[in-house]
Specification:
Distance between the termini: 162 Å
Radius of gyration: 63 Å
Shape: elongated
Strand content: 15-25%
CATH superfamily of one domain: Dehydroquinase, class II
Helix content: 40-55%
Order of helices and strands: HHEEEHEEHEHEHEHEHEHHHHHEEEH
Number of helices: 14
Amino acid sequence: MSESPLSGASLAASTPVIPVSMLNRLARDRLESGFPLCWVAGEVSNLSYATSGHVYFTLKDAAAQVRCVMFRNRVQLLGWRLENGQHIEARVLVTLYEARGDFQLNVEAARKAGVGNLYEQFLRLKEKLEGEGLFSEAGKRPLPAFPRSIGIVTSLQAAALSDVLSTLARRAAHLDIVLYPTPVQGEGAAALIAAAIRSAGERRECEVLIVCRGGGSLEDLWAFNDEALARTIRACSIPVITGIGHETDFSIADFAADQRAPTPTAAAELAAPQRASLMARLTGCRRALRRQTGQGLEQRSQHLDWLAHRLQHPAQGLAQQGQHLLNLQRRLDSALRQTSTRGRNGLAGLTRRLLLARPESSRFARRLEALKPELHGAWRKTHDTKAGDLARIAASLKHLNPDAVLARGFSIVTGDAGKIVRDSRSLEPNQRITVCFHSGRADATISSVTHAAPVPDTQKSSTR
């Protein structure tokens, strides 16, 4: 069934009509929001540098191509020049050029193909050596303030050598320069650079060493991203300054060095103090020394005048000392007289006190003779009394002596533990006992035990 003209007209009336500019703007918004920043690889062709500084080119591969633009502010950060036929990797924003409706890529950054892998290797090595503490600031040595000789490790054909030599000639023409030539690019260059640094450290011909090279791509500077070279720099016996590439170029050697300069020229400026500034400082120090010396002489001269004013004739000094000695002699005589007088007065007082306190020995001797008979009688009486008491106590003890009881025919019975047996009830048949006599003892065994009737308390009392 065919569509009627009326229904087609109604559909056209309901669909909004938009201008081409709006369509391109909507398409651009959809592209930029739908594609995040990404890396795209391809070959550069149709390259054009505009007077504005922008760069226009086509990025292509075997099956397709796409227009690209790199604006001036991004080109200035590139560090190398784009050329037709180069294979690059570009970080791009997918967009649409609205004025012509052209699909294009806005290039934010670019690197030569394969550089991404090299950069990843660089980051891995940097992280490894940094973790070992190879880049630690604590291990880096200070540069000598006034070196007398400077070593340079670079290629004889390098433009950096000319820059360094001209800078040193301008700043410090008096310094000795020792050159350690070595290739700074290509296969095996890292090992040769390390050998040159080791040679400089062993020969000790210079006080600071500059390792330098001009600018270039990451591949050109790759010799300075070698692990063995970094360890050689740290092991070098003299301070090392690196001036490799441009200010934006960083290498593993830069991190390992004692000081990193953004360019070879800056490395030369760090190594050698400017002769003119040193001469100016020396002139200032000379003026300050002359001024301080003059002031010191003036002060000493003034002090000398003061001392000369105080200086007197020796005869006058001797007279003053003689008068002072005479005064001292008078004071000494007076002090001796006073001391002697006080001593005599004190001795007289002590003599009087001694006479008053001295006892009458004859009176006490007579009193002692009168007390002797009384003391002798009292001692005799006390002796006789104590002797009688002692005799009575000895007689009492003799009656209580167990040996006297045993001598009368009694005996003492003890059990197994040596305890005296006082009652037959404490014995058991077949029990071992010991019988002690006045003379000797006997061991016996109980065959039987007969218990006596208990004695009444009254009887015990009467017995006692």
